[in-house]
Amino acid sequence: MSPVGKTITIIGGGASGVLLAAHLLRSDDPDLRVTLIERQGQLGQGLAYSARMRHHRVNVPARGMSAFADSPDHFWRWLQRREPGRHASSFVFVPRRQYGAYLEDVLREAGDRIPGRLRVLSEEVLALNETRVGVETLLGNGTSIASHWAALAVGHETQAARGRGIAVRSGSESDTPLDPDASVMILGSGLSMVDAWISLAEAQHRGPITVVSRNGLLPTGHRDVAPLSIDAADVPFGTSLTYLARWFRDLVRETESQGGDWRSVVDGLRPYNQRLWQSWPQRERRQFLRHVRPWWNVHRHRLPPDLHARLVQAVARGQVTLVAAEFVGIERSETGVRATLRPRGTDERQIMDVARVYDCGGVSVDVRASNNPLVQHLVRTGAAQADSMHIGLDIDDHCALVGADGNVSQRVRVVGPLTRGRFFEIEAVPDIRLQCQALAESILRAE
After folding, report:
1. CATH class of residue range 6-157+365-445
2. Topology agreement, domain 6-157+365-445 and domain 184-220+302-359
């Protein structure tokens, strides 16, 4: 049966799915129908905005978190209505759970604009079958949905904890209460590590915390500085990483010599990040992921200033120790856990006994290891394939899914982190909202 009207099924109710639905529902078309499917049943939460603790915060100031690029103060106005008089400036970093509540409100308001156009389902999607007239979405309850379009917005997936389940994820069922004086190891030094450290700090943990990562780098902190205005003609697209790094360092030195801040340069380059990524051959992209990304991430994805100051103080007083090393293995011991590390630049093995190891290695970036049944189905049947870097699904410039045979889907689109192979920087709201806006406009224009 051919679907009636213009119908779109969105799989995934995290930030990407909600933003796409909200942009679609800005249309005045009374015959538009949007079905949003989220297996967890919580909309706008996803992996990024489901944190329960008040100190698990968004790492972008409120002024940059609007759902709509053409209404940049939309979130800030929502926040002022929600908490009148509490925030003196839009340079504020709200709890992630609060931003999840904002996304829920955005979706509800979009659906209420013309009632009857939005349907929300709490189901698991097992498969997509593209037909001559649209897409059939098969659900775990045995039913299916016919629509003209389908969009994958399944977001991030966490990697399985390392060490055969001996390491634990912060906040998981295995994260049981600890002796406040126990020694702890955290694998990874990015934003997920900060979440684990904050959880320990809020639990009044006093024991030593060893943070292990290949490079031993900590995220940097935000400052309220304006992005540097950079002309596209000055950006060295398509050059080697060595040349780009030299150009970037020179620009930072020049900016700082004039009283500016390196953060202005990083933020000024942001509008060109996707174009830079796309201008590189695969060799440069692999070199970036292997050698440059850790350094880039700590400068690009920064912490709220107060959290950064607290973390630096914890390092300074010796409670938190940074170790640049490779994690080799883990086993249970009589007193807890025994971890084996290889310090950076050596072939030595270092043994550490701790009460618990937290795995904060971040999100899974190898789509071939996905545990999502829909992604598995699409790859297994050849309807989708991993991109050349295996960090997302293969898509074209318009977010259309590309199959194993190289054919471009006419009806299935992909948004959010699964498109990182094409766009790389597509994990934060300021980037995703632009992608969702463009995709919504193309779907609404289509016949």
Report:
1. alpha beta
2. yes
The hierarchical CATH code for the domain 184-220+302-359 is: 3.50.50.60
Share of the chain above pLDDT 90, in %: 83
pTM, to two decimals? 0.92
Name the band, by pLDDT with cuts 50, 70 and 90, for residue 52. low
Question: Distance between CA 307 and CA 59 in Å, rounded?
Answer: 10
Q: What pLDDT digit, counting tens, does each position of 173-217 carry?
A: 889 999 999 999 999 999 889 999 999 999 999 999 999 999 999
The structural domains of the chain, with segments of one domain joined by +, span: 6-157+365-445, 184-220+302-359, 232-300
- Residue pLDDT, tens place only, 69-90: 999 999 999 999 999 989 999 9
Q: What is the pLDDT of residues 256-302, one digit of tens each?
A: 999 999 999 999 999 999 999 999 999 999 999 988 998 999 999 99
Q: How far apart are CA 86 and CA 74, in angstroms?
A: 17
Instruction: Give the mean pLDDT of the chain.
Output: 92
Residue 147 CA, chain-centre distance (Å), reads 28
Q: How far is Cα 330 from Cα 353, in angstroms, rounded to an integer?
A: 10
Question: 63 - beta bridge partners?
Answer: none
Distance, in Å, from the CA atom of 314 to the CA atom of 165, rounded to the nearest integer, reads: 28
Q: In the predicted model, is pLDDT for residue 49 greater than 70?
A: no
